[in-house]
Amino acid sequence: MGSFSYFFSPQPTPKTTNEYIISFYEKLAERVTVVNYNKKPVSASLDIFRYVFKSDVMVLNWPEDIMHLRFGILQIIISFLGLVIFRIRGGKIVWVCHNRESHFKRFKLLRNFARKFFATQSQNIIVHSEDALKHFKRVRHKVIFMNHPVYEKFHQKTEVNDAETIDVLIWGNITPYKGLSAFIENYKKCNVSFGVTIIGKANKDYYKHLTELAAGSKVSIIDHFLSEEELYQYFQKSKIILLPYLDNDTFSSGSLIHSLNSSKVIIGPSLGNFIDLQKTGACLTYDDYQGLFNIVGELLSDDQKYKYKLKELQQGIERYYLSNTWDKFIDNLLLIVSEKKHRDKMVATILEC
Length: 353
Hints:
The chain crosses the membrane at residues 67-86. It comes from Paraflavisolibacter caeni. Keywords: Membrane, Transmembrane, Transmembrane helix. This is Glycosyltransferase. The protein is α/β, with parallel strands linked by helices. Helix content is 45%, strand content 15%. It contains 12 helices and 12 strands. It has helices at residues 19-31, 44-50, 72-88, 108-121, 180-189, 204-214, 228-237, 254-259, 272-280, 289-301, 303-323, 326-352; strands at 5-9, 33-34, 57-61, 92-96, 124-127, 143-145, 166-171, 196-200, 219-223, 238-242, 265-269, 284-286. Helix 2 (44-50) runs parallel beside helix 3 (72-88), helix 5 packs parallel to helix 6 (204-214) and helix 10 crosses helix 11 (303-323). The longest helix is centred in the C-terminal third of the chain and has 27 residues, at 326-352. The radius of gyration is 22 Å and the shape is globular.
C-alpha cells in the first residue's frame, strides 16, 4: 500500500484553518509518499498539472469548486486537462465529495458538468454520510461511505459561572447555507423563549441582514472568528450545540464532528452525517423547526431530562470517537486504493491473455 505515491489537494498552508484538510494531509503523509508534502503550492489547477506524471493517486477535496477561485474558469479547464492526462497514463483519482451541491451558486452549467466529470473520472468517490449514496446512482459502484474521522480532543478546563450559561450555541462561519435566516424567522414565528448565541465570521452585509432579522428576540449574533481555545470556552458555557443547516447542500458537516469535542447535547437536521451520528447515539436530529423547538424546550425546562439525555449522548460520542479515528480512516483509504489497483492489474493481465 505504501509503494504508491499520492498527490493531495487542497494542500494546507500556514494560513489554513480547516482542521479536516490539515489532519487528512498530515496523517496521509505519515503513511505514504505525498509528492506535494511541504512543497510550496502555486494554484489549485497548476498544482494538479505539476504532479500528473509524479503521482499514482490523486486525492481531491472540493475539486468541483476550483472554478470559484481566482481565474476559476481557466483553472478548472487546466484541471480537467491535467486529470484526463493523468487518467490516460493510468493514474487513479479519489474524489472526496463533501456536498450535494456547491455552496457557491455561480456557473450552474459548468458546476453540473464538473460534478459529472469527477464522478466519471474518479476511481473511487468517498462520502462521509450514508445519505449521500443515493445521489450517485449511475456510479454507485464507485461510491464508498466512510464516517467522517474525529478531531483531537481539546482538554483545557474552563470554570463556567451560571450567569454565563448559554442555552443554545450556533457556531462556525456565518454563511447562508447554514440556514440561519430560516432558523431566526421560525424562532420568532413560534415565540420561542430560550436564548440563542450565534458566533462566527460573517460577511458584512449578511451579518447586518441577520441582526436586523433577529431584532427584538433573544438571538444574539457575534461576528468573530473563534480560536480553538475560545471555541472550547463557548462549548463549556453552552447547554446545547445547534447546527441548523439547510437540506439542499450538505452531505457531511465538519462542524458536527468538531462539536463532538463539546461533550454536550448536539442537535442538527435529519440529513447527511447527522443521521449517521444519530444512529450511533452521538447527536439528536429534527425533521422540522417545530420539532426542533419542542426538543430544545423539553430539555431546557427539565433539568433531570437534560442530564439523562446528556449522559446518553456522551456515551454515543465516546463510541464514535473510538470507531472513527484518523488512523482507521487512512487504513481504509489505502486498502480501497490498493485493492482497486490490484483488480485493475488482474483485468489487464486477463485482457492480454
